[in-house]
Protein backbone atom coordinates (compact mmCIF):
# COMPACT_ATOMS: atom_id res chain seq x y z
CA UNK A 1 0.00 0.00 0.00
CA UNK A 2 2.69 2.48 1.01
CA UNK A 3 4.65 1.78 -2.19
CA UNK A 4 1.54 2.64 -4.16
CA UNK A 5 1.12 5.91 -2.25
CA UNK A 6 4.76 6.78 -2.80
CA UNK A 7 4.24 6.24 -6.49
CA UNK A 8 1.24 8.57 -6.49
CA UNK A 9 3.22 11.23 -4.64
CA UNK A 10 6.16 10.96 -7.03
CA UNK A 11 3.92 11.33 -10.07
CA UNK A 12 2.05 14.26 -8.56
CA UNK A 13 5.18 16.16 -7.66
CA UNK A 14 6.58 15.46 -11.11
CA UNK A 15 3.46 17.08 -12.57
CA UNK A 16 3.90 20.04 -10.21
CA UNK A 17 7.54 20.49 -11.14
CA UNK A 18 6.76 20.24 -14.84
CA UNK A 19 3.98 22.79 -14.52
CA UNK A 20 6.16 25.13 -12.53
CA UNK A 21 8.76 25.05 -15.28
CA UNK A 22 6.14 26.23 -17.74
CA UNK A 23 4.95 28.94 -15.35
CA UNK A 24 8.28 29.86 -13.84
CA UNK A 25 8.97 33.50 -13.34
CA UNK A 26 12.66 33.04 -13.80
CA UNK A 27 12.66 32.73 -17.57
CA UNK A 28 16.05 33.08 -19.18
CA UNK A 29 16.46 35.44 -22.08
CA UNK A 30 16.97 33.79 -25.44
CA UNK A 31 19.66 36.37 -26.19
CA UNK A 32 22.93 37.18 -24.51
CA UNK A 33 21.46 40.38 -23.06
CA UNK A 34 21.17 40.56 -19.25
CA UNK A 35 17.73 39.49 -18.05
CA UNK A 36 16.04 40.64 -14.83
CA UNK A 37 12.79 40.17 -12.93
CA UNK A 38 11.32 43.54 -11.98
CA UNK A 39 8.30 44.15 -9.74
CA UNK A 40 5.78 46.95 -10.04
CA UNK A 41 2.58 48.01 -8.35
CA UNK A 42 -0.66 46.91 -10.03
CA UNK A 43 -2.75 50.00 -9.31
CA UNK A 44 -0.89 53.30 -9.27
CA UNK A 45 -1.99 55.34 -12.31
CA UNK A 46 -0.57 57.26 -14.09
CA UNK A 47 2.71 55.53 -13.18
CA UNK A 48 1.57 51.92 -13.55
CA UNK A 49 -1.78 50.40 -14.47
CA UNK A 50 -3.21 47.88 -16.91
CA UNK A 51 -4.20 49.17 -20.33
CA UNK A 52 -5.64 47.51 -23.41
CA UNK A 53 -5.28 43.75 -23.82
CA UNK A 54 -3.88 43.38 -20.31
CA UNK A 55 -0.63 45.21 -21.06
CA UNK A 56 0.82 47.28 -18.22
CA UNK A 57 1.30 50.93 -19.12
CA UNK A 58 2.12 54.17 -17.36
CA UNK A 59 5.02 56.54 -16.80
CA UNK A 60 7.11 53.94 -14.93
CA UNK A 61 6.36 51.21 -17.46
CA UNK A 62 7.30 53.32 -20.48
CA UNK A 63 10.43 54.67 -18.77
CA UNK A 64 11.57 51.15 -17.93
CA UNK A 65 10.95 49.94 -21.50
CA UNK A 66 12.83 52.90 -22.98
CA UNK A 67 15.77 52.47 -20.58
CA UNK A 68 15.97 48.72 -21.25
CA UNK A 69 16.09 49.39 -24.97
CA UNK A 70 18.86 51.96 -24.57
CA UNK A 71 20.93 49.75 -22.25
CA UNK A 72 20.26 46.43 -24.01
CA UNK A 73 18.79 44.38 -21.20
CA UNK A 74 15.54 42.43 -21.01
CA UNK A 75 13.19 41.98 -18.09
CA UNK A 76 10.11 40.12 -16.89
CA UNK A 77 7.55 42.34 -15.22
CA UNK A 78 5.85 41.03 -12.04
CA UNK A 79 2.88 43.16 -10.93
CA UNK A 80 1.85 42.88 -7.26
CA UNK A 81 0.86 45.09 -4.36
CA UNK A 82 3.45 47.73 -3.44
CA UNK A 83 4.20 46.20 -0.05
CA UNK A 84 4.68 42.72 -1.55
CA UNK A 85 6.89 44.13 -4.30
CA UNK A 86 9.33 45.74 -1.89
CA UNK A 87 9.45 42.66 0.34
CA UNK A 88 10.07 40.45 -2.70
CA UNK A 89 13.11 42.53 -3.62
CA UNK A 90 14.48 42.32 -0.08
CA UNK A 91 13.99 38.54 -0.04
CA UNK A 92 15.90 38.15 -3.31
CA UNK A 93 12.88 36.90 -5.24
CA UNK A 94 12.86 40.01 -7.46
CA UNK A 95 15.85 41.91 -8.88
CA UNK A 96 14.38 45.41 -8.74
CA UNK A 97 11.21 47.44 -8.21
CA UNK A 98 9.78 50.45 -10.03
CA UNK A 99 6.49 51.56 -8.48
CA UNK A 100 6.46 55.28 -7.78
CA UNK A 101 8.69 54.52 -4.82
CA UNK A 102 9.71 57.59 -2.82
CA UNK A 103 13.37 57.70 -1.75
CA UNK A 104 13.56 57.99 2.05
CA UNK A 105 16.31 57.58 4.64
CA UNK A 106 14.63 54.48 6.06
CA UNK A 107 14.42 52.83 2.66
CA UNK A 108 17.99 53.74 1.78
CA UNK A 109 19.08 51.63 4.74
CA UNK A 110 17.92 48.49 2.91
CA UNK A 111 17.68 49.55 -0.76
CA UNK A 112 20.06 51.05 -3.28
CA UNK A 113 18.20 53.68 -5.31
CA UNK A 114 18.74 55.01 -8.79
CA UNK A 115 18.95 58.71 -9.51
CA UNK A 116 15.51 60.26 -9.07
CA UNK A 117 13.26 60.11 -12.12
CA UNK A 118 10.30 62.12 -10.80
CA UNK A 119 9.64 64.80 -8.17
CA UNK A 120 6.35 64.70 -6.28
CA UNK A 121 4.58 65.98 -3.17
CA UNK A 122 1.95 64.66 -0.77
CA UNK A 123 -1.56 66.09 -0.59
CA UNK A 124 -4.74 65.33 1.37
CA UNK A 125 -7.96 64.46 -0.45
CA UNK A 126 -11.50 64.12 0.89
CA UNK A 127 -15.00 63.29 -0.34
CA UNK A 128 -16.46 66.04 -2.53
CA UNK A 129 -19.18 66.70 0.06
CA UNK A 130 -16.75 66.77 3.00
CA UNK A 131 -16.34 69.89 5.16
CA UNK A 132 -12.73 69.01 5.98
CA UNK A 133 -10.47 71.76 4.62
CA UNK A 134 -7.24 71.51 6.60
CA UNK A 135 -5.20 69.10 8.73
CA UNK A 136 -6.60 70.42 12.00
CA UNK A 137 -10.06 69.25 10.91
CA UNK A 138 -8.87 65.62 11.11
CA UNK A 139 -9.09 65.33 14.90
CA UNK A 140 -11.08 62.19 15.74
CA UNK A 141 -11.47 61.32 12.04
CA UNK A 142 -10.29 58.24 10.14
CA UNK A 143 -7.67 58.49 7.39
CA UNK A 144 -7.23 55.84 4.70
CA UNK A 145 -3.63 54.96 3.77
CA UNK A 146 -1.92 52.68 1.26
CA UNK A 147 0.39 50.19 2.96
CA UNK A 148 4.11 50.86 2.68
CA UNK A 149 3.91 54.14 0.75
CA UNK A 150 5.61 57.46 1.39
CA UNK A 151 2.24 59.13 1.94
CA UNK A 152 1.44 56.56 4.63
CA UNK A 153 4.73 57.31 6.37
CA UNK A 154 3.96 61.02 6.23
CA UNK A 155 0.51 60.46 7.73
CA UNK A 156 1.89 58.36 10.55
CA UNK A 157 4.39 61.12 11.29
CA UNK A 158 1.65 63.71 11.85
CA UNK A 159 -1.00 61.39 13.30
CA UNK A 160 -0.30 62.20 16.96
CA UNK A 161 -0.18 65.93 16.29
CA UNK A 162 -3.57 66.06 14.56
CA UNK A 163 -5.29 63.23 16.46
CA UNK A 164 -6.70 61.08 13.67
CA UNK A 165 -7.07 57.30 13.30
CA UNK A 166 -5.73 55.33 10.33
CA UNK A 167 -6.83 52.34 8.29
CA UNK A 168 -4.72 50.58 5.65
CA UNK A 169 -5.32 49.23 2.14
CA UNK A 170 -3.15 47.36 -0.36
CA UNK A 171 -4.32 49.21 -3.47
CA UNK A 172 -5.18 52.78 -4.35
CA UNK A 173 -8.65 52.19 -5.79
CA UNK A 174 -10.00 50.51 -2.65
CA UNK A 175 -8.50 53.30 -0.56
CA UNK A 176 -10.17 55.98 -2.72
CA UNK A 177 -13.54 54.21 -2.56
CA UNK A 178 -13.33 53.93 1.21
CA UNK A 179 -13.18 57.72 1.38
CA UNK A 180 -15.79 58.12 -1.34
CA UNK A 181 -18.42 56.04 0.52
CA UNK A 182 -17.63 57.70 3.84
CA UNK A 183 -16.00 54.85 5.75
CA UNK A 184 -12.86 57.00 5.96
CA UNK A 185 -12.83 60.79 6.09
CA UNK A 186 -9.65 61.56 4.16
CA UNK A 187 -6.61 60.08 2.48
CA UNK A 188 -3.05 61.13 1.74
CA UNK A 189 -1.62 60.50 -1.71
CA UNK A 190 1.09 61.67 -4.09
CA UNK A 191 -0.12 64.76 -5.92
CA UNK A 192 0.17 63.58 -9.59
CA UNK A 193 -1.50 60.26 -8.74
CA UNK A 194 -4.48 61.91 -7.07
CA UNK A 195 -4.78 64.52 -9.81
CA UNK A 196 -4.89 61.77 -12.42
CA UNK A 197 -7.46 59.77 -10.43
CA UNK A 198 -9.76 62.79 -10.00
CA UNK A 199 -9.42 63.68 -13.67
CA UNK A 200 -10.57 60.17 -14.55
CA UNK A 201 -13.64 59.94 -12.37
CA UNK A 202 -12.65 59.47 -8.72
CA UNK A 203 -15.16 61.58 -6.72
CA UNK A 204 -12.65 63.19 -4.35
CA UNK A 205 -11.17 66.67 -4.01
CA UNK A 206 -7.73 67.90 -3.00
CA UNK A 207 -7.82 70.26 -0.01
CA UNK A 208 -4.16 70.87 0.85
CA UNK A 209 -1.11 72.09 -1.00
CA UNK A 210 1.70 69.62 -1.77
CA UNK A 211 4.05 69.03 1.14
CA UNK A 212 7.10 66.96 1.90
CA UNK A 213 8.44 67.02 -1.65
CA UNK A 214 9.76 63.60 -2.50
CA UNK A 215 11.62 61.90 -5.31
CA UNK A 216 10.79 58.61 -7.00
CA UNK A 217 13.55 56.12 -7.65
CA UNK A 218 14.13 52.65 -9.06
CA UNK A 219 15.33 50.33 -6.26
CA UNK A 220 17.34 47.13 -5.81
CA UNK A 221 18.33 45.28 -2.65
CA UNK A 222 21.25 47.00 -0.96
CA UNK A 223 24.54 45.68 -2.31
CA UNK A 224 22.83 43.61 -5.03
CA UNK A 225 22.29 44.01 -8.79
CA UNK A 226 24.74 46.87 -9.21
CA UNK A 227 24.87 46.33 -12.99
CA UNK A 228 21.09 46.75 -13.23
CA UNK A 229 21.18 49.94 -11.18
CA UNK A 230 24.00 51.39 -13.28
CA UNK A 231 22.13 50.51 -16.46
CA UNK A 232 18.99 52.25 -15.18
CA UNK A 233 20.92 55.42 -14.32
CA UNK A 234 22.73 55.41 -17.65
CA UNK A 235 19.53 54.83 -19.62
CA UNK A 236 17.65 57.48 -17.64
CA UNK A 237 20.30 60.08 -18.50
CA UNK A 238 20.08 59.14 -22.18
CA UNK A 239 16.28 59.36 -22.47
CA UNK A 240 16.31 62.70 -20.65
CA UNK A 241 18.93 64.01 -23.07
CA UNK A 242 17.07 62.95 -26.23
CA UNK A 243 13.63 64.14 -25.07
CA UNK A 244 12.07 60.67 -24.64
CA UNK A 245 11.59 61.17 -20.91
CA UNK A 246 9.49 64.32 -21.24
CA UNK A 247 7.40 62.80 -24.02
CA UNK A 248 6.54 59.85 -21.78
CA UNK A 249 5.58 62.05 -18.82
CA UNK A 250 3.44 64.34 -20.98
CA UNK A 251 1.80 61.35 -22.67
CA UNK A 252 0.19 60.25 -19.41
CA UNK A 253 -0.28 63.47 -17.44
CA UNK A 254 -2.06 65.15 -20.36
CA UNK A 255 -4.33 62.22 -21.29
CA UNK A 256 -7.46 60.57 -19.92
CA UNK A 257 -7.53 56.94 -18.87
CA UNK A 258 -9.86 56.03 -21.77
CA UNK A 259 -6.96 56.59 -24.16
CA UNK A 260 -5.21 53.55 -22.70
CA UNK A 261 -8.16 51.34 -21.75
CA UNK A 262 -10.72 51.74 -24.52
CA UNK A 263 -13.68 54.01 -25.15
CA UNK A 264 -15.57 55.65 -22.33
CA UNK A 265 -18.66 53.61 -23.14
CA UNK A 266 -16.71 50.38 -22.76
CA UNK A 267 -15.81 51.43 -19.23
CA UNK A 268 -19.32 52.22 -18.00
CA UNK A 269 -21.65 49.45 -19.24
CA UNK A 270 -21.72 45.82 -18.06
CA UNK A 271 -21.47 44.43 -21.56
CA UNK A 272 -18.81 46.97 -22.48
CA UNK A 273 -16.73 46.01 -19.44
CA UNK A 274 -17.00 42.32 -20.28
CA UNK A 275 -16.24 42.86 -23.96
CA UNK A 276 -13.26 45.18 -23.47
CA UNK A 277 -11.78 43.06 -20.66
CA UNK A 278 -12.73 39.54 -21.76
CA UNK A 279 -9.10 38.48 -22.25
CA UNK A 280 -8.16 39.59 -18.74
CA UNK A 281 -11.21 37.90 -17.19
CA UNK A 282 -10.51 34.66 -19.05
CA UNK A 283 -6.83 34.68 -18.09
CA UNK A 284 -7.71 35.35 -14.46
CA UNK A 285 -10.27 32.55 -14.43
CA UNK A 286 -7.86 30.11 -16.08
CA UNK A 287 -5.18 30.92 -13.48
CA UNK A 288 -7.72 30.43 -10.68
CA UNK A 289 -8.80 27.05 -12.05
CA UNK A 290 -5.18 25.95 -12.55
CA UNK A 291 -4.35 26.81 -8.95
CA UNK A 292 -7.48 25.09 -7.68
CA UNK A 293 -7.14 21.82 -9.59
CA UNK A 294 -3.43 21.29 -9.00
CA UNK A 295 -3.70 22.30 -5.35
CA UNK A 296 -6.72 20.13 -4.54
CA UNK A 297 -5.14 17.07 -6.17
CA UNK A 298 -1.90 17.39 -4.25
CA UNK A 299 -3.68 18.50 -1.07
CA UNK A 300 -5.91 15.42 -1.28
CA UNK A 301 -2.90 13.12 -1.46
CA UNK A 302 -1.18 14.97 1.38
CA UNK A 303 -4.37 15.07 3.43
CA UNK A 304 -5.03 11.35 3.00
CA UNK A 305 -1.50 10.59 4.19
CA UNK A 306 -2.01 12.85 7.23
CA UNK A 307 -5.34 11.19 7.92
CA UNK A 308 -3.85 7.70 7.71
CA UNK A 309 -1.01 8.70 10.01
CA UNK A 310 -3.60 10.07 12.43
CA UNK A 311 -5.19 6.62 12.86
CA UNK A 312 -1.91 4.71 12.79
CA UNK A 313 -1.36 2.20 15.59
CA UNK A 314 1.89 4.05 16.36
CA UNK A 315 1.43 6.92 18.80
CA UNK A 316 4.35 8.95 17.45
CA UNK A 317 2.81 8.93 13.95
CA UNK A 318 -0.51 10.05 15.42
CA UNK A 319 1.31 12.85 17.22
CA UNK A 320 3.14 13.88 14.04
CA UNK A 321 -0.14 14.04 12.11
CA UNK A 322 -1.88 16.03 14.83
CA UNK A 323 1.01 18.53 15.05
CA UNK A 324 1.16 19.13 11.28
CA UNK A 325 -2.61 19.57 11.06
CA UNK A 326 -2.59 21.94 14.05
CA UNK A 327 0.17 24.13 12.60
CA UNK A 328 -1.15 24.53 9.06
CA UNK A 329 -4.79 24.88 10.08
CA UNK A 330 -3.76 27.52 12.61
CA UNK A 331 -1.71 29.70 10.27
CA UNK A 332 -3.66 32.34 8.28
CA UNK A 333 -3.34 31.57 4.57
CA UNK A 334 -1.82 34.96 3.73
CA UNK A 335 0.81 34.64 6.44
CA UNK A 336 1.72 31.20 5.11
CA UNK A 337 1.94 32.55 1.54
CA UNK A 338 4.26 35.37 2.59
CA UNK A 339 6.40 32.99 4.64
CA UNK A 340 6.89 30.60 1.71
CA UNK A 341 7.34 33.23 -1.01
CA UNK A 342 9.29 35.86 0.93
CA UNK A 343 10.46 34.30 4.20
CA UNK A 344 12.02 31.07 2.90
CA UNK A 345 14.14 32.74 0.17
CA UNK A 346 15.57 35.00 2.89
CA UNK A 347 16.73 31.88 4.73
CA UNK A 348 17.85 29.74 1.79
CA UNK A 349 18.91 32.31 -0.80
CA UNK A 350 16.98 30.38 -3.46
CA UNK A 351 14.13 31.95 -5.44
CA UNK A 352 10.69 30.35 -5.47
CA UNK A 353 8.37 31.16 -8.42
CA UNK A 354 5.15 32.77 -7.24
CA UNK A 355 2.99 30.10 -8.87
CA UNK A 356 4.88 27.31 -7.10
CA UNK A 357 4.77 29.22 -3.80
CA UNK A 358 1.01 29.60 -4.24
CA UNK A 359 0.54 25.88 -4.90
CA UNK A 360 2.64 24.91 -1.88
CA UNK A 361 0.69 27.35 0.29
CA UNK A 362 -2.66 25.89 -0.73
CA UNK A 363 -1.45 22.29 -0.46
CA UNK A 364 -0.17 22.77 3.09
CA UNK A 365 -3.27 24.66 4.25
CA UNK A 366 -5.99 22.70 2.45
CA UNK A 367 -4.16 19.41 3.05
CA UNK A 368 -4.32 20.01 6.80
CA UNK A 369 -8.10 20.40 6.66
CA UNK A 370 -8.43 17.34 4.42
CA UNK A 371 -6.23 15.36 6.82
CA UNK A 372 -8.56 16.25 9.69
CA UNK A 373 -11.74 15.07 8.00
CA UNK A 374 -10.04 11.98 6.50
CA UNK A 375 -9.02 10.97 10.00
CA UNK A 376 -12.57 11.67 11.17
CA UNK A 377 -14.04 9.65 8.31
CA UNK A 378 -11.86 6.65 9.09
CA UNK A 379 -12.63 6.85 12.80
CA UNK A 380 -16.35 6.98 11.96
CA UNK A 381 -16.14 3.44 10.51
CA UNK A 382 -17.08 0.86 13.12
CA UNK A 383 -13.95 -0.40 14.88
CA UNK A 384 -15.28 -3.91 14.55
CA UNK A 385 -14.61 -3.72 10.82
CA UNK A 386 -10.86 -3.50 11.40
CA UNK A 387 -10.95 -6.19 14.05
CA UNK A 388 -12.86 -8.52 11.72
CA UNK A 389 -10.45 -7.89 8.86
CA UNK A 390 -7.41 -8.54 11.05
CA UNK A 391 -8.98 -11.70 12.47
CA UNK A 392 -9.26 -12.99 8.90
CA UNK A 393 -5.50 -12.62 8.53
CA UNK A 394 -5.37 -9.37 6.57
CA UNK A 395 -2.33 -7.21 7.42
CA UNK A 396 -3.03 -3.67 8.72
CA UNK A 397 -2.26 -1.91 5.43
CA UNK A 398 -4.44 -4.23 3.35
CA UNK A 399 -7.30 -4.09 5.87
CA UNK A 400 -7.15 -0.29 5.77
CA UNK A 401 -7.14 -0.06 1.95
CA UNK A 402 -9.65 -2.83 1.23
CA UNK A 403 -12.08 -2.61 4.13
CA UNK A 404 -11.89 0.69 6.05
CA UNK A 405 -11.07 3.25 3.34
CA UNK A 406 -13.90 2.31 0.94
CA UNK A 407 -16.40 2.84 3.74
CA UNK A 408 -14.68 5.98 5.00
CA UNK A 409 -14.57 7.58 1.55
CA UNK A 410 -18.36 7.64 1.35
CA UNK A 411 -18.44 9.52 4.63
CA UNK A 412 -15.76 11.96 3.44
CA UNK A 413 -17.28 12.87 0.03
CA UNK A 414 -19.33 15.89 1.23
CA UNK A 415 -16.25 17.26 3.00
CA UNK A 416 -14.13 16.83 -0.14
CA UNK A 417 -16.75 18.73 -2.15
CA UNK A 418 -16.76 21.59 0.34
CA UNK A 419 -12.96 21.71 0.43
CA UNK A 420 -12.79 21.91 -3.37
CA UNK A 421 -15.02 25.00 -3.30
CA UNK A 422 -13.09 26.51 -0.38
CA UNK A 423 -9.82 26.03 -2.27
CA UNK A 424 -11.25 27.82 -5.30
CA UNK A 425 -12.15 30.82 -3.14
CA UNK A 426 -8.86 30.74 -1.23
CA UNK A 427 -6.89 31.30 -4.44
CA UNK A 428 -7.89 34.99 -4.22
CA UNK A 429 -5.53 35.44 -1.26
CA UNK A 430 -2.55 34.55 -3.47
CA UNK A 431 -2.85 37.89 -5.27
CA UNK A 432 -0.79 39.19 -2.33
CA UNK A 433 2.33 37.48 -3.74
CA UNK A 434 1.80 38.66 -7.30
CA UNK A 435 -0.38 35.94 -8.83
CA UNK A 436 -2.91 37.58 -11.16
CA UNK A 437 -5.90 35.29 -10.57
CA UNK A 438 -9.55 36.28 -10.93
CA UNK A 439 -9.85 38.55 -7.89
CA UNK A 440 -6.62 40.41 -8.62
CA UNK A 441 -7.76 40.74 -12.24
CA UNK A 442 -10.79 42.64 -10.98
CA UNK A 443 -8.62 44.92 -8.86
CA UNK A 444 -6.36 45.71 -11.81
CA UNK A 445 -9.27 46.45 -14.16
CA UNK A 446 -10.90 48.77 -11.62
CA UNK A 447 -7.64 50.70 -11.22
CA UNK A 448 -8.02 52.08 -14.75
CA UNK A 449 -11.79 52.50 -15.14
CA UNK A 450 -12.94 53.10 -11.54
CA UNK A 451 -16.08 50.98 -12.15
CA UNK A 452 -15.79 49.12 -8.84
CA UNK A 453 -19.42 48.02 -8.36
CA UNK A 454 -19.85 46.69 -11.90
CA UNK A 455 -16.48 44.94 -12.12
CA UNK A 456 -16.90 43.24 -8.73
CA UNK A 457 -20.40 42.16 -9.71
CA UNK A 458 -18.98 40.56 -12.87
CA UNK A 459 -16.26 38.82 -10.84
CA UNK A 460 -18.83 37.62 -8.30
CA UNK A 461 -21.03 36.19 -11.06
CA UNK A 462 -18.06 34.33 -12.57
CA UNK A 463 -17.23 32.81 -9.19
CA UNK A 464 -20.86 31.81 -8.61
CA UNK A 465 -21.14 30.18 -12.03
CA UNK A 466 -17.94 28.18 -11.55
CA UNK A 467 -18.86 27.14 -7.99
CA UNK A 468 -22.35 26.10 -9.14
CA UNK A 469 -20.88 23.94 -11.92
CA UNK A 470 -18.44 22.38 -9.46
CA UNK A 471 -21.26 21.67 -7.03
CA UNK A 472 -23.33 19.97 -9.73
CA UNK A 473 -20.33 17.89 -10.79
CA UNK A 474 -19.52 16.98 -7.21
CA UNK A 475 -23.11 15.96 -6.49
CA UNK A 476 -23.12 13.78 -9.60
CA UNK A 477 -19.92 12.08 -8.42
CA UNK A 478 -21.51 11.61 -4.98
CA UNK A 479 -24.53 9.86 -6.45
CA UNK A 480 -22.29 7.56 -8.50
CA UNK A 481 -20.32 6.63 -5.39
CA UNK A 482 -23.39 5.45 -3.50
Automatic annotation (TrEMBL):
- The protein's predominant localisation is membrane
Q: Would you identify the family this protein belongs to, as annotated?
A: Belongs to the binding-protein-dependent transport system permease family.
Q: Does the keyword Metal-binding apply?
A: no
The entry's localization annotation reads: Cell membrane
Instruction: Alphabetically list the UniProt keywords.
Output: Cell membrane, Membrane, Transmembrane, Transmembrane helix, Transport
- Membrane topology field: Multi-pass membrane protein
Q: Which organism is it from?
A: Periweissella beninensis
> Which PANTHER family is this protein grouped with?
ABC TRANSPORTER MEMBRANE SPANNING PERMEASE-GLUTAMINE TRANSPORT, MEMBRANE COMPONENT OF AMINO ACID ABC TRANSPORTER
Question: What Pfam family does this protein match (any one)?
Answer: SBP_bac_3
Any idea where the ABC transmembrane type-1 domain is?
A: 285-474
Quote the PROSITE patterns the UniProt record gives.
ABC_TM1
Residue ranges of the TM segments: 289-311, 323-342, 354-374, 455-473
Q: Gene3D superfamilies, alphabetically?
A: MetI-like (1.10.3720.10), Periplasmic binding protein-like II (3.40.190.10)
InterPro entries to which the protein is assigned, alphabetical: AA_ABC_transptr_permease_3TM, ArtM/GltK/GlnP/TcyL/YhdX-like, Iontro_rcpt_C, MetI-like, MetI-like_sf, Solute-binding_3/MltF_N
Q: What is this protein called?
A: Amino acid ABC transporter substrate-binding protein/permease
Amino acid sequence: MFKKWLGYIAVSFAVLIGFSIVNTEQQVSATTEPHYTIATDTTFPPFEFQGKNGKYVGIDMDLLAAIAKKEHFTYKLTPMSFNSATQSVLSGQIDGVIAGMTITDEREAVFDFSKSYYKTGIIMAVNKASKIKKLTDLKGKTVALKTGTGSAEYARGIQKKYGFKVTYFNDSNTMYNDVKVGNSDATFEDMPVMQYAIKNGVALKIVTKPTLAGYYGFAVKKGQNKALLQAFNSGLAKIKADGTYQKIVNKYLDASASKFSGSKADNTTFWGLIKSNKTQFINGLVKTIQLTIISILLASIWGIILGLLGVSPYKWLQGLSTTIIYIFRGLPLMVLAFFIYIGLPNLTGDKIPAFVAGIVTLVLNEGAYIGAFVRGGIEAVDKGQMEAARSLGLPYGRAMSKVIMPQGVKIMIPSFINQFIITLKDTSILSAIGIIELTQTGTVIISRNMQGFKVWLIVAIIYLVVITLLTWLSNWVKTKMK
